[in-house]
Amino acid sequence: GSSAPPRLRETEHEKEAASSRFTHSNMAGFSAWFWNERFWLPHNVTWADLKNTDDANYPQAGDLLFAFPLAFGIFLVRLAFERFIAKPCALSLRIQANGPRRAQPNAILEKVFTSITKSPDEKRLEGLSKQLDWDVRKIQRWFRHRRNQDKPSTLTKFCESMYAYFFKKMLHLQLCLVNGVITL
Q1: C-alpha distances in Å from residue 32, one per residue of 22, 37, 60, 87
Q2: Residue 9 CB: number of other CB atoms within 10 A?
């Protein structure tokens, strides 16, 4: 089925084949450049020397692929720990979830904050004061509140710190068990 003339169909097929060859040759060239033995290996060592044999088992590049699911798993453990263990602990200790006070919306000050400076000098403060008809002290307060609103809340910091402590303690325990020494 196609209503296109036979020569046109052949031309489309030739374009796809050429594109495939071009992509394949680009990937082969990139692979050869990336895995250059002179960059990765010491002098007089080749990739062939690092092939697995009955006598020796070497790490292979594909082994790096195990890092992605492992990292994703650790990330899920962290989310679960922070949500179901650390947060209830924090709330039982009456650590509040509210963050710093939010700055009132102001397009001019927000533009200065995001594109020019997060801490304006006296000259800029006076210019903004005249432009907005605000007191310099009020503008300073707005910038302080705006800087602080990007900071995490006490609850977030507590949960992250509790996870970091737990994770480090688990690594320490694992190392002690591997080495046959138990010290807490």
Answers
A1: 15, 9, 16, 50
A2: 13
- How far is Cα 45 from Cα 53, in angstroms, rounded to an integer? 16
* Alpha carbon separation from 63 to 52, 95, 136 (Å, rounded): 13, 43, 59
pLDDT digits 0-9 by tens, 133-160: 999 999 999 999 999 998 899 999 999 9
At 184 the three-state DSSP class reads coil
Half-sphere exposure for 60 (CA within 13 Å, toward CB): 9
**C-alpha dihedral (157, 162, 168, 174), degrees to nearest 10:** -160
Mention every residue, 6+ apart, whose C-beta is less than 8 A from residue 46. 37
Whole-structure pTM over 0.85, yes or no? no
